[in-house]
Design a protein that fits this description.
The protein has 17 helices and 27 strands. With about 550 residues, it is α/β, with parallel strands linked by helices. Strands 13-15-16-19-20-25-26-27 form an 8-stranded parallel β-barrel, surrounded by 9 helices. Strands 2-1-3-4-12-11-10 form a 7-stranded mixed beta sheet. Strands 21, 22, 23 and 24 form a 4-stranded antiparallel beta sheet that branches.
């Protein structure tokens, strides 16, 4: 098979990019020194995380002159995410770090006064009827970034670039650029399903370069950011020692029969592939027994990630066991090292649960000061805040009046057992088995300050009830923070997804049991949302 070279400088989840390249019929050779860059015919620069961190890594290893020489020699080059940002002169994310200056201009940050930042999800890449590596106006592509280059009509075109744009909350930004031998995307094609695979293949074969900038006709572009529908798989070891997908009722995953076996709903890899083919925008694995097991011994979970990423080309999140720990041989292992292990196995995001609650408690006790020691801070610094999800497990505590507690209360439309009109949401740890004296607002504001990029908002009261999401909880959390929120717990039918998108500002909604039991498919949920006038991404089939 023909070969493409990938520059390796610890850029997060590159396994998915390798899998996507291999899916297109190519093999990957790794470039591990600046000297090896000259041997590459086609070179891809992946990138996630912090602009300054990535550019300083490349600069200190001596890669930047070699990459520039490769481009100047007219050889095919592709940059992804920060790989696109590196082509500009610089970014306000780190003003001291210079870019390659292949494109004039500096990146700025999305305005978070009217929308969630980072910009996470499926959005358009509209090339305005110009051919740009098989980008299509009705396709959606997966973005995850806080910084962008604002699009000014004609500006980059005068420099010779063909440009595709996206729109987020009224801000039009550069989604992809191409010129001669260079292609760069702000979105992740390896995580953009078949739409992204088409772009990668167009680059690898050279077909995209041949037709670049030509006038094309076709359907009108679709709208902007879609409503994300996420499939979640709770994974644990059953009594027979097999990893299975399970689902609890208020976190109890055992059958109600006398033998009390772990509820077995299927095999994780097979189910993830099924949901991908139904159009799931992301797949989340929550390893719900990992707080009792050393994650370094959790080899089956790593293998599940590796095998899933071979056939599932949408973002994968893994939760459970992301914490500082000690291996069985006594070696201390940091949360960052464990996260790195998951990223190398195919994860795009890691989800932190109980340890985030404990870290938030300490942060508040220390006068809301950061010292850089928490797992959230370490991982977000290395891989960007978009790589860190905090999974929250709150439950209602009813009070008769606001003054009855120090915690952030809401006036509820669903009074308590004694007619209480107010409640607050207490955070729990250890799978909901231990309640802490910290409310959900305190928690999400603390982890946002630490560098979390997204909140996975569960609800113990709603878990397994199929009665719909807790809209009051979601609205309270959304009004307290500026990072995206994923609504979870309680989904039982497609209308529950429509309701949460229409009545809250949630950025995504997650389903589990209703999908696992076959009551509804992801496709049926998306079709229903589309009928209600909401923007959704449709699965585009095989490459």
């Amino acid at each position: 098979m023909p070969t493409v070279h990938l520059l390796d400088y610890v850029a997060g989840n590159v396994r998915s990019l390798v899998n996507a390249i291999e899916k297109c019929g190519y093999t990957v050779d790794w470039v591990r020194s600046p000297e090896e860059v000259s041997q590459a015919e086609k070179l891809i620069l992946p990138g996630v995380g912090h602009f300054g961190h990535c550019l300083s890594q490349l600069a200190s290893a001596g890669y930047l002159p070699a990459v520039r020489a490769h481009i100047d020699a007219g050889k095919p080059f592709m940059g992804i995410c920060v790989g696109l940002q590196a082509l500009f002169e610089g970014s306000v994310e780190d003003p001291a770090a210079p870019g390659l200056s292949l494109i004039k201009g500096k990146l700025d940050r999305f305005d978070d006064s009217d929308k969630s930042v980072p910009h996470i999800g499926w959005n358009s890449a509209n090339s305005s009827s110009k051919s740009l590596y098989d980008l299509r106006p009705q396709s959606k592509y997966y973005y995850v970034h806080s910084y962008k280059y604002p699009y000014v009509k004609g500006e980059l075109e005068k420099q010779g670039w063909t440009v595709a744009t996206g729109t987020y909350g009224g801000e039009v930004f550069v989604g992809a650029v191409a010129k001669e031998n260079v292609l760069a995307t702000q979105f992740h094609p390896e995580k953009s399903g078949v739409a992204g695979l088409r772009l990668i293949k167009s680059f690898l074969t050279g077909d995209g370069a041949k037709t670049l900038g030509q006038e094309v006709s076709g359907p009108a572009p679709t709208g902007g950011l879609t409503k994300r529908v996420i499939a979640c798989l709770d994974v644990r070891t059953n009594d027979q020692g097999d990893l299975v997908v399970t689902k609890g009722d208020q976190y109890d995953v055992r059958e109600k029969t006398n033998d009390r076996n772990v509820r077995n709903l299927g095999k994780p890899v097979d189910m993830a592939k099924k949901y991908y083919e139904q159009g799931a925008d992301e797949v989340t694995f929550l390893n719900i027994t990992s707080f009792r097991d050393c994650p370094l011994a959790d080899l089956p979970m790593l293998e599940i990630l590796r095998r899933t990423s071979e056939t599932v080309f949408v973002p994968l999140t893994i939760g459970g066991g992301i914490r500082d720990t000690v291996d069985t041989d006594g070696t201390k292992v940091s949360a960052l090292e464990i996260a790195t292990m998951y990223f190398k196995s195919g994860a795009d995001k890691v989800s932190i649960g109980s340890d985030a609650v404990l870290a938030a408690e300490e942060y508040i006790a220390m006068g809301r000061k950061l010292f850089g020691a928490t797992a959230i801070e370490q991982i977000s610094k290395a891989y960007g805040n978009q790589a860190v999800v905090v999974s929250v497990d709150p439950k209602r505590v009813y009070v008769p009046k606001v003054e009855a507690t120090r915690h952030k209360t809401i006036k509820t439309a669903f009074p308590g057992p004694k007619g209480e009109e107010y409640c607050w949401y207490a955070c729990t740890i250890k799978g909901g088995r231990e309640t802490r004296d910290i409310d959900v607002v305190e928690l999400v504001q603390a982890v946002e300050a630490m560098g979390a990029g997204e909140i996975l908002l569960n609800c113990i009261d709603k878990d397994g009830t199929n009665s719909g999401f807790d809209l009051e909880l979601i609205n309270q959390v959304k009004s307290a923070i500026r990072i995206p929120v994923i609504a979870s717990s309680g989904a039982g039918n497609p209308e529950h997804f429509n309701e949460v998108f229409q009545k809250t500002r949630t950025d995504a909604a997650l389903g589990a049991g209703m999908f696992h039991r076959g009551e509804y498919t992801v496709q049926q949920v998306k079709d229903y949302l589309a009928e209600k006038g909401l923007e959704v991404r449709q699965f585009e089939g095989e490459l």
